[in-house]
Specification:
The structure is a homodimer of 398-residue chains.
Chain A: H1 4-11, E1 17-19, H2 23-28, E2 35-40, H3 49-63, E3 67-72, H4 94-108, E4 117-121, H5 123-138, H6 143-147, H7 150-157, H8 164-180, E5 184-188, H9 192-204, E6 211-215, H10 241-249, H11 256-262, H12 268-279, H13 285-301, H14 303-318, E7 328-330, E8 337-338, H15 339-345, H16 352-360, E9 364-366, E10 369-370, E11 375-376, H17 378-381, E12 385-388, E13 392-397
Parallel strand pairs in A: 2-3, 2-5, 3-4, 5-6, 7-13
Antiparallel strand pairs in A: 1-6, 8-11, 9-10, 9-12, 12-13
Helix pairs in contact in A: 5-8, 8-9, 10-13, 10-14, 11-12, 13-14, 15-16
């Protein structure tokens, strides 16, 4: 294995916190392959660029010869973890979770090396704990320790309901560390408290407590909140290149330095150059964002897809043109035609009420001209390209 | 079945609270045999006169044709329920609990009718709940609801440890009500909160919530605190008649009316007569206590045993005589003899330090004379009767 300082240099770029302070140093000093745990709950179908930050760090451990132990929390996903969202999360059925697990796994595998990889599901050991095992587990931690969690405190203070079940979540996650004998657990910065409970649980079961290593959180496309599937402000690693590029172009300028670092994994020098350039007006934000978009798409889809995605974007937004391959839809016989219903029929909107809202907002254009009424004479639509919002197009055929 | 008002008249003498107010009336109105739950955790070997209050009430339901469902909490006994004792109770092994369950059951059966009786152990359903079932169960109740319990609040406020496991106890007990489909649950007055959680749990599982019916708490032989095996202020229904009578004679006069009602189950008229007589100095407290002692012993051991126990008591305390069958113990060769060690050797004290304490307190007598020093010359002990405290005797043989 590489000398400790070289290993640290390889790992530290995307590390935010290590607990205890010297935990990582001490473990690397043992000169053996470490067991590095990363647990994700498949509660949604996608893998976001936010998760990708943690997976980049996990892969770095693999590259140094350590073992990545990826835990798909198929059992804990059924418990629900509010994670500061301040609402009792809807519980998922085993089938829903399994569907999400399959979908996530297909997206996660390419982010990791195939060697030094163990993939486990926590139903393997949590399902077998049983009533007595659960009681044993709950005897390892005090109520005060669990209620320290800020999210619980805040919700209880606000008289929001917290289910007794949610209190068990951190213990189950901690037991995962016992089951796989983790030396290190990785997580997002907002997971630090959970990782520390894992240390307590390991200690109670006679194991040496893991080092907790967190990665910074990537803000979402809104530039404000943590990227998250439930907030809808995310990019999936499986998004189509055009979609991915378009979403990167939509982030606020202020988020660019963080995105250069945590979404494009640019070198520290490049991140500094962009940040300084933007601060001093020496860098054109539009050009910097295009470069960021190309880097992000190239990372997951390759250079060619990145170039094509940028061209597509230019056609849509820079030149205002419709894409080359606009879908076609045959007009019904009505005259006049009720546009919200037609847009729904053509699949451009999810419901006719969405269609009504978008017409009222001036977001529906026929050949570039905003529509002002819901009823449109038939001949105005025949053969015309209709655009909804920025990116949805259709051509109506008579 | 009897008319409702006659049933109520039979039940109400030892009822303290009913929740909801009209719950009992409504259920009796259905004219069917009700399922009346009483759960006890076998965490100690004895059945106290305190428990007997609840069992008297349960038997009254049986006498009316309702079904007594006695739950031996062999599973919950392993969890530990602090019940206001403000300390994390030591967990018991399955073997210890099974021993206590056997011992309790032998003492409980004679307190109930053999008909209309179901005896169940909650390991039957709780053991099979499994991890997923436990999570399901914990999802039925909020953290705030559980933390309402005064004992938890007090201990958390005092920064005393409360194990996460203890929070599960009321849920498990509540699930017992679901498993046996209880119409009514009986408990001591200090269990009301637990019985109400049972209502919540039943509701969450789609059952009609049970009526909660509590019996008053009997104070212990100290006349102050609830009778309890862990406090040592108790009488067991299996105590020897002499022991039982002697302990009744040791209660404070002020506790007599309550004991007439809840330990001797005297009629309301008799309880009133004794209470009024004591208050007006019209009744001799000693005689009243003797009568109480005879009533209690007679209830569990019959009239003859009660009379013999009273005679035994009189020999010991009234006439100051040693009992007829004093145990004998051969003196060691030392001279002088260290009395605390000798008392320990003879089995009159648990340790020589207890012996030292009792000598210092003047509670050790040789032939009626208090001992003043720990060292005693051998000839003073040879052939003498030594008395420790009020009831422990031995004769030393040379």
């Amino acid at each position: 294995m590489l000398p400790i300082d070289e290993q640290l240099a390889h790992l530290l770029p995307t590390v935010e916190t290590v607990v205890p302070d010297d935990g990582l140093l001490e473990l690397l000093g043992e000169g053996r392959p470490l067991r590095v745990k990363l647990g994700v709950d498949p509660t949604a179908p996608d893998v976001t660029l936010g998760w990708a930050v943690m997976f980049d760090l996990l892969r770095r451990f693999q590259e140094l010869g350590h073992t990545a132990v990826l835990i798909l929390g198929d059992f804990t996903a059924q418990v629900g973890d509010p994670s500061g969202k301040s609402e009792t999360r809807k519980r998922l059925s085993a089938d829903e979770v399994e569907g999400y697990a399959q979908s996530c796994l297909a997206m996660l595998r390419p982010l990791l090396l195939e060697d030094h990889l163990e993939i486990r599901r926590n139903s393997e050991w949590l399902g077998n704990l049983g009533t007595a095992g659960m009681l044993e587990l709950t005897s390892t931690v005090t109520v005060s320790r669990i209620l320290e969690r800020e999210d619980f405190q805040g919700r209880l203070a606000d008289e929001q309901p917290v289910s007794m079940m949610e209190l068990l979540y951190p213990l189950l996650q901690g037991f995962d560390s016992v089951a796989i004998e983790a030396d290190i657990e990785l997580g997002g910065a907002d997971q630090l408290w959970n990782l520390l409970v894992g240390r307590d649980v390991q200690r109670a079961y006679g194991q040496r407590p893991q080092a907790a290593v967190t990665a910074p959180l990537l803000v979402g496309t809104d530039g404000v909140r943590k990227m998250s599937q439930s907030l809808g402000n995310y990019i999936s690693v499986a998004d189509e290149p055009e979609e991915m590029f378009g979403k990167v172009m939509s982030i606020p300028d202020a988020a660019m330095p963080m995105w250069y670092r945590l979404a494009a994994f640019a070198s520290p020098e490049e991140v500094r150059r962009v940040a300084a350039g933007l601060a001093e007006d020496a860098v054109d934000p539009g050009a910097a964002k295009r470069q960021l978009g190309r880097m992000v798409v190239a990372r997951y889809r390759g250079e060619d897809a990145a170039a094509a995605a940028e061209e597509h974007f230019d056609r849509l937004f820079k030149h205002g043109e419709a894409p080359e391959d606009v879908a076609e839809h045959t007009l019904p016989g009505d005259d006049p035609i009720w546009l919200p219903g037609l847009l729904k029929e053509a699949g451009l909107v999810a419901s006719s009420s969405e269609g009504k809202r978008l017409v009222a907002a001036g977001a529906v254009r026929i050949e570039g001209e905003p529509v002002e009424a819901e009823e449109v004479v038939r001949r105005r639509l025949a053969g015309a390209v209709v655009r909804v919002g920025k990116r949805r197009f259709v051509r109506f055929i008579d």
